[in-house]
Write a structure and sequence with these properties.
Blueprint (H helix, E strand, L loop, with lengths): L8 H31 L5 H13 L6 E3 L7 E2 L9 E10 L10 E11 L7 E9 L2 H4 L9 H26 L8 E6 L8 H6 L7 H15 L2 E6 L7 H8 L9 H5 L8 H4 L8 E2 L2 E3 L1
Parallel strand pairs: 3-6, 6-7
Antiparallel strand pairs: 1-9, 2-8, 3-4, 4-5
Helix pairs in contact: 4-6
């Protein structure tokens, strides 16, 4: 069936106008949010009480818990005085599909090792694995695994690869822990879980995926390797969620108000777009 473009040309024009209006509203909201951030920069005990109340009122609320005394802190970290090694791993996958001729799924992990100042070319490798055995394909109920299972497996293998590379680098250095090594992962360091998974699993010890994640990060820590999560276009709004609390009296912080704040259409990426090169914000814990 062909698409008759002439029948949607008016709608495309309307869409363009709507996008322009939305951008204008976003720009106004961003400026307003930055002003609110400036006026409420100091982290008070009242704000901390509101954060605690928001957590208790709505378990799905995801705000930013400030570790610093100011919400708008700007920091320019000092430059490294010695060469470093960068390790990176990223994966891709083919999900199982019950309509395929044969059931299978595939996970492919790519890696790179860049040794700054060595004059060596980066080491690049891939490790593809195809899964076709019944024990790999089906859950305990006999159903073909869902994409979230494959995603979790890929994430575990990415972290495994980073640990393997880190161990090899430290061995090659004769156990020397002074050379900085950074392990770069695609996406946030905190493992994402669906609401269904969070409801089903209450303790890290009972979640094999989370337990594996913690154990591998502990191994990186023992190797003096700094883990880094990189998100290309982050959509989180944790700081904005906390910022919305500043205008609310404590008695009005409840499930309804924390879910319908004034900056629901914005992201922290927009709020913090005025960061200078090489600057970072203060430190926050993710609720």
């Amino acid at each position: 069936m062909s698409l008759e473009l002439s029948k949607i040309s008016d709608q495309v024009g309307q869409m363009g106008q709507a996008l322009a209006d939305r951008q204008r509203r976003h720009d106004e909201q961003v400026q307003q949010a930055r002003q609110v951030l400036k006026e409420n920069a100091v982290v008070t005990e009242a704000l901390r009480r509101k954060i605690g109340t928001a957590c208790r009122s709505d378990e799905s609320w995801r705000g930013a818990d400030p570790a610093d005394e100011c919400l708008d802190r700007r920091v320019r970290p000092a430059s490294l005085r010695q060469p470093a090694t960068l390790l990176a791993a990223d994966g891709s996958q083919i999900y199982p599909n019950r309509h395929d001729i044969a059931p299978f799924f595939l996970v492919n992990i790519g890696s790179i090792v860049l040794r700054q100042g060595s004059g060596q070319a980066p080491d690049v490798a891939t490790r593809p694995t195809i899964y076709f055995e019944d024990g790999d394909l089906y859950d305990d109920g006999g159903h073909l695994h869902q994409p979230e299972h494959v995603d979790a497996l890929r994430a575990r293998q990415e972290l495994d690869m980073l640990v393997e590379l880190a161990e090899a680098e430290r061995d090659a250095l004769g156990g020397d822990l002074t050379r900085p090594i950074f392990a770069l992962a695609d996406g946030p360091l905190l493992p994402w879980q669906s609401q269904r998974q969070r409801t089903r699993v209450n303790e890290p010890a009972s979640d094999p995926h989370l337990g594996h994640f913690i154990a591998r990060l502990e191994r990186l820590c023992a190797l003096h390797v700094v883990p880094i999560g990189y998100v290309d276009r982050p959509s989180s709004a944790n700081l904005l969620r906390t910022l919305e609390l500043t205008a609310l009296p404590l008695e009005r912080v409840d499930r309804q108000t924390v879910r319908h704040g004034p900056y629901r259409s914005l992201t922290d990426r927009l709020l913090l777009a005025d960061l200078a090169p090489n600057q970072r914000t203060g430190l926050f814990a993710s609720i």
